[in-house]
Amino acid sequence: MTSAKAALRALCDPAREVSAHYLIAADGEVISLVPEALRAWHAGAGRWGGTTDVNSRSIGIELANDGFSPFAAPQMDALTDLLKGLHARWNIRPERVIGHSDMAPGRKIDPGSRFDWQRLALSGFSVWPSSSACAHSSEEASREADDARFSAAMAAFGYTATTDLTLLLKTFRLRFRAGYSGPLDYTDLTMITDLAKRFPVDVNAAWA
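-> structure tokens emitted (208 positions)
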């Protein structure tokens, strides 16, 4: 949308059949739209782990942004404060804080490549691959990546909405390696393997 006001009009229009629990404007204003205990219509068709009705299992937060610009500091500050309260009220694990692009690859692209997921992880409200998983020697980085292992690790972490390798890689990089292109590489594989081991979507599942 062109502005938070435009987004607010859309989220409050019954004919649009879309809603969210919260809308955060660029200046940091937090607008509460739907009570947290009620279902909002922000996610739609998609999947995360074994959850196919994400709307019924989530609290939707919309951020006013054109999808290409950096997110304003007041907006990120407000988001962090909001997540702090949500964690206290609902005990939401950091790995369960996801983007619409995560649960609906290809159909949704938000919050986009300019969103600072690493900042949220440092604040304890999201997750990020370990530093060792992100850094490799030139010899390690040149190793050939295994497509099947990458797909399996993606599913173990939570990306179960598609099995299309190209779409999985694009979705992974949108969040964890923004700006990277080209075929699957060793860094992609080690990063998602690290996430799958530490934060499996099924906490009872083992990942090797």
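The longest helix spans residues 73-90.
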